[in-house]
Amino acid sequence: MRTLRFTGTSLLVVIVVAALVAGFFWGVDTSRPPTAAVDDRIDYSVFVVEEATLGRTISGIATIEWPTESDIDVPIDGRVTKMPVDDGVIDDGDILLHVDGVPVVVIAGATPAFRDLRRGVAGDDVAQLQRYLASIGFDLTVDGEYGRETERAVRDWNAVRGIGKIADLPLGWIVFVEPLPTRVQPSDDLRLGAVLPQPAVSTIRDTPRIAIPLLPAAASEVEVGDEVVIGDGIRSSVTSGPRTQPDGGLTIEVDASPFSCGTTRTCIVTDVVRTEPAEIVLLPEVTGPAVPELALGADAQGDTHVVMADGSRRAVTVRASADGLALVDGIDAGETVRVPTP
Fold this sequence. Notes:
The chain has helices at 8-26, 124-135, 148-160, 216-219; strands at 44-48, 50-65, 68-72, 80-82, 89-90, 95-99, 102-108, 174-177, 182-186, 201-204, 209-214, 227-230, 234-244, 250-254, 273-292, 296-298, 304-307, 313-315, 317-322, 325-329, 336-340. The protein is mostly beta strands. A six-stranded antiparallel β-barrel has the order 2-11-14-13-12-15. It has a four-stranded antiparallel beta sheet with strand order 3-10-9-5, with no helix packed on it. It has a four-stranded mixed beta sheet with strand order 4-6-7-8.
């Protein structure tokens, strides 16, 4: 066995060298890790950067429903001889429908029709009738009393509308509705030639309610304010949701103002409930240079970069990502980057 011996001089040299090495490390700032060099031993492929358009949507079916607000009864027996107005909007003085050939007229008023109107009766219903007759040119006082003036005006009005010189109004010849104008929907049982059902028609809201049912996974991605494209391109937005329905399903609510008809006669509601295809826009479409998400890296400070084909690093800013691709600023289409092999 060979024994190593240190002389005094050699031991001193060892101590001096050890001290120098220790001093070197004590002088180095080890609080920040050194910048990692690109490891050429990692397998990679080369990707040519291309312009791409990214976007993400969820498809669904929107249910558009105009809720009923109130029912309109026409208190008269008989068969329907003419159906309601085609455009679904009624206003002061409009004919709602015909029963046994008699036109039923809509008049503005909060008090419903409940009796025959003839000489000697008084009340709010009489005043409502008087206001309408005065508005179309008849000379009478609006006092709520069915007197001689009102009787004369009713006789002349009935004659003008082809009923004959009848000085009273039997129950069912007029209906009082408020507010006017308003949009109406016929009863499902209202048909030409059928016995008049009650209610005959219902008023519906000017603006519908729109809901889109979604599966839980999809609903969790939707946020209030996300754009929604319905039908042939009508644009709206998510207003609330997701909400749990009685059947356990989830729905989101959509702003329905783009579908509001108001009382415009050119806007016809043919179905009070209908469905339309809908697209919920989670990521609006954006276009720019795209790289695979696998090509992105981050340094110790969290800054994003890509490794170019020659091994150099290039700082980039991610604008959007979807389907495994990322749109970035800081690189141009046609350049090449390294993509590590998974």
